[in-house]
Design goal:
Keywords: Membrane, Transmembrane, Transmembrane helix
Structural class: mainly alpha
Number of helices: 10
InterPro entries: ABC/ECF_trnsptr_transmembrane (IPR003339)
Organism: Clostridium porci
Membrane topology: Multi-pass membrane protein
Mean pLDDT: 84
Strand content: under 5%
Radius of gyration: 23 Å
Protein name: Energy-coupling factor transporter transmembrane protein EcfT
Largest sheet: 2 strands, antiparallel
Oligomer: single chain
Low-confidence stretches: none
């Protein structure tokens, strides 16, 4: 089966066999450990762990290739804009200034500013793989059950589950409509001008919007007929019990978070690692 963006494909390995609640708690713990700390050494350690977890889960890079491209573009833009609007924030943060070179009197490149921006970039780059691993290894129904078990309203949890389920369907519908329009002579290749390609793309988007509205109405009617929302609580068919492997994973996630807190309060004395003092 060809894997697509946000398309859940069940596999039999350690990551897929974990409970959705376990993966949610571990994702929150590892994300908080990265977001709370500004120690680039620990953030790189968590990033390396996320790569290892990705390999263990058996996922394929092509499943996250498109998202990776968007994230890289976002990180580059963020890096440039941070320096453009706050070129001296690193020196204010660390209290020293070790100049590398300068463009103008305002735009001076220092090791402090470079460390701050690299740390900031690695924080984002560490969290995104963790989120992708969580989404691609968790059944949407089980994900909704996990959210409900940690206190989220089951209506909101179910709405998010439907959203995740709809992404692969929407991509599949787009591809089918695009193939149907191309068989009728619609040219979407690079041989056409950009203006013409944008105009031709509208011939795909409009049918996609109407098919989406039809799907929404169909699902809404089905949920109403089954009495969805009548009671304050509900049971979940997709929920999994917590087993031995789940307890091991929970202990691992808690240890990662505890390591970040220990490094912050007892080793560095603050959220920031300052090698310039």
């Amino acid at each position: 089966m060809k894997a697509k963006l946000f398309d859940y494909v069940d596999r039999d390995n350690f990551m897929f066999n974990l409970s959705g609640l376990t993966k949610l708690v571990c994702f929150i713990c590892m994300t908080c450990s990265v977001m709370f700390s500004y120690d680039v050494r620990y953030i790189l350690f968590v990033m390396a762990l996320s790569v290892v977890i990705f390999k263990v889960s058996g996922l394929q890079f092509k499943q996250i290739k498109l998202m990776t491209i968007y994230v890289v573009i976002f990180l580059l833009i963020n890096f440039l804009l941070t320096y453009l609007f706050s070129p001296g924030y690193g020196t204010e943060l660390y209290g020293t200034a070790h100049e590398i070179f300068r463009f103008t009197a305002r735009y001076t490149v220092t090791w402090e500013q470079l460390l701050y921006q690299v740390t900031k970039i690695t924080k984002y780059a560490s969290v995104v793989p963790l989120g992708m691993i969580f989404l691609l290894t968790t059944n949407p129904s089980e994900f909704a059950a996990s959210l409900n078990r940690v206190g989220v309203s089951y209506k909101g949890a179910y709405a998010l589950s439907l959203t995740l389920r709809y992404f692969p369907d929407m991509i599949r519908d787009y591809q089918n409509i695009a193939l149907a329009q191309q068989s009728r002579g619609l040219d979407l290749s690079r041989r056409e001008k950009v203006r013409v390609r944008v105009k031709n793309s509208m011939n795909i988007c409009i049918p996609l919007i109407f098919s989406t509205l039809d799907r929404i109405e169909l699902i809404s009617n089905a949920m109403d007929l089954r009495g969805f929302g009548k009671h304050k609580k509900r049971t979940w068919y997709g929920a999994r019990p917590v087993r031995r492997g789940d307890w091991m994973a929970l202990a691992f996630g808690t240890l990662i978070l505890a390591g970040s807190l220990y490094l912050t309060f007892f080793v560095n004395g603050s959220r920031f690692w300052n090698p310039f003092i």
